[in-house]
Task: inverse folding
């Protein structure tokens, strides 16, 4: 009985979320096997094989897997005929897309966004946008889980590369065809997995002035987020939105600039390790959950902060 | 083309939820309910496709108690043609709902199924993918753009770090993301008209679906509360705290 971890990658680099997912797999015990499905993705398998604790890497290198379509991946995993105790993937758009398909094909439940492993078959995960925690016992023989990566410290240790086993199973592409991908040109880290997030709200006043938030983010190597108010006012595009109907983030450091802290926004960031609030209204609700607060004009404080950070 | 849209009645997204003291769930008595926001986007997309002459009929379906009729009526007021309620008192999880919807799909034979990417109560983000798996149909999750042409669809998907476009044959399952459209409001005349549109109630027990118990819910608890920290005097203070106390920089 072993644990299968689906490796997310772009055929060249393993996504760092795999390290957190592996950490969760190690907590479950057993011998983790990592599945790298892609095309011209040998280097990904090599990276995966070096992570400490990995028992084996299964590599399938075929054009049908180039874009890791859910249809093909699910067929591959379900048809692997191994008796898995658990199948894990990170709770990214990749993992969330494919894992329920795998679970349904196996007629088992899938637990989303696991934030804690209590026992081998008991898991905690947030529901109601993080306003409640559900603890469930899985009764199925196979546990299909997506892992909230921010809840597990990544495996960073290295080992002598374990064995890479090539698979040659070909799965029919099921009619779905990849057309194109347009990745944001931004050099900034992805909002969902960034270590540091700097978010701006209505207090920024305009799209022009919002650039101040971006400048602070760049000095910190952070991702940029926004409150719904800032999105609705057109300062930034929708996909910047952090909150109940936007992205849920849990970085090490979250800096909220000019954000009052409405319940819907807090739902998306209150699991951050350290929260900093910069706001001129000292009664703003954001200060009730911020670890460190600065009361004052953000148009004075943020440039000061940027200047100090640049000096360091 | 016939479109099936699945909708769910959930606690209104602007209500602050309260966890029950006995840890069995959250308080739903006297709490404002609404259509799951992602499902509103799915309904809107179906209506837009019909308005562009690409869909002939829109059937909305919901699984739940009689109270879900209200959610279905709302969808009818927005522009859906017909509604189906699968009535059951028990609490259904994602895989159960996918199996129930599979039965409805067999009856209705839609070419396209639109669903919200997740419901804001369970936050599972599973049912569309599971339904696609059970039907063995292609899936396009997190759609922010959708075009239909010659029995195929092209879907722009929101993925981490950008957008991805997939093309697939119909029938297919599409789950909607926030950016797909801006849902309309129901006008008063349309609300009046919706009362006369057909709404079939099917008892869950009559569908012939056998469900298994896959999970046992042990508890629903409140997350640990954060207590606010300190307000600092200066930017220099903040930097010192972040570097030396919190050690996050």
Result:
């Amino acid at each position: 009985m072993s644990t299968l971890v689906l490796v997310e990658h772009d055929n060249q680099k393993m996504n760092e979320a795999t390290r957190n997912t592996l950490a969760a797999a190690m907590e479950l015990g057993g011998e983790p096997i990592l599945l790298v499905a892609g095309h011209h993705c040998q280097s990904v398998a090599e990276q995966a094989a070096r992570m400490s604790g990995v028992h084996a890497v299964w590599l399938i290198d075929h054009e049908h897997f180039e874009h890791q379509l859910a249809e093909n991946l699910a067929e591959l995993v379900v048809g692997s005929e191994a008796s898995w105790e658990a199948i894990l993937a990170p709770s990214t758009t990749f993992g969330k897309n494919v894992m329920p398909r795998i679970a349904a094909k196996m007629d088992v439940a899938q637990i989303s966004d696991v934030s804690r492993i209590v026992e081998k078959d008991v898991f905690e995960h947030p529901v109601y946008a993080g306003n409640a925690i559900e603890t469930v016992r899985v009764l199925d023989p196979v546990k299909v889980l997506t892992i909230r990566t921010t809840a597990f410290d990544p495996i960073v240790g290295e080992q002598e590369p374990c064995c890479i086993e090539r698979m040659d199973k070909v799965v029919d592409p099921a009619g779905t065809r990849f057309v194109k991908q347009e990745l944001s040109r931004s050099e900034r880290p992805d909002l969902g997995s960034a270590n540091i997030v700097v978010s701006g709200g209505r207090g920024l006043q305009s799209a022009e002035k919002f650039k101040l938030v971006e400048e602070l983010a760049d000095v910190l190597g952070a991702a940029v987020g926004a409150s719904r108010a800032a999105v609705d006012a057109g300062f930034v595009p929708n996909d910047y939105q952090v909150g109940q109907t936007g992205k849920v983030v849990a970085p090490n450091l979250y800096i909220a600039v000019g954000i009052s802290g409405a319940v819907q926004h807090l739902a998306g960031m209150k699991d951050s390790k350290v929260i900093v609030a910069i706001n001129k209204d000292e009664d703003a609700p954001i200060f009730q959950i911020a670890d460190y607060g600065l009361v004052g004009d953000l148009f004075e404080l943020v440039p000061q902060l940027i200047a100090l950070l640049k000096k360091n | 083309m016939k479109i099936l849209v699945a909708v769910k009645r959930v606690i209104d997204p602007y209500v602050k939820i309260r966890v029950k003291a006995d840890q069995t769930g959250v308080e739903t008595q006297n709490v404002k309910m609404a259509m799951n926001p992602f499902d509103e986007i799915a309904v809107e997309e179906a209506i837009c496709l019909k308005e562009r002459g690409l869909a002939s009929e829109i059937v909305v379906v919901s699984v739940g108690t009689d109270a879900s009729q209200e959610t279905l009526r709302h969808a009818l007021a927005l522009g859906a043609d017909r509604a189906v309620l699968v009535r059951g008192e028990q609490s259904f999880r994602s895989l159960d709902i996918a199996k129930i919807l599979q039965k409805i799909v067999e009856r209705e034979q839609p070419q396209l199924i639109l669903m919200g990417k997740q419901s804001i109560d369970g936050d599972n983000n599973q049912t569309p993918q599971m339904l696609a798996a059970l039907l063995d149909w292609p899936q396009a999750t997190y759609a922010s753009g959708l075009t239909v042409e010659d029995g195929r669809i092209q879907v722009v998907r929101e993925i981490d770090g950008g957008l991805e476009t997939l093309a697939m044959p119909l029938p297919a399952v599409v789950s909607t993301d926030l950016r797909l459209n801006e849902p309309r409001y129901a006008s008063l005349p349309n609300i009046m008209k919706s009362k006369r549109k057909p709404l079939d109630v099917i008892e869950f027990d009559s569908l012939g679906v056998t469900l298994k118990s896959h999970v046992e819910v042990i508890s629903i608890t409140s997350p640990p509360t954060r207590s606010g920290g300190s307000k600092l005097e200066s930017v220099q203070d903040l930097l010192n705290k972040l570097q030396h106390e919190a050690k996050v920089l």
Notes: The first helix of chain A runs from residue 17 to 27.
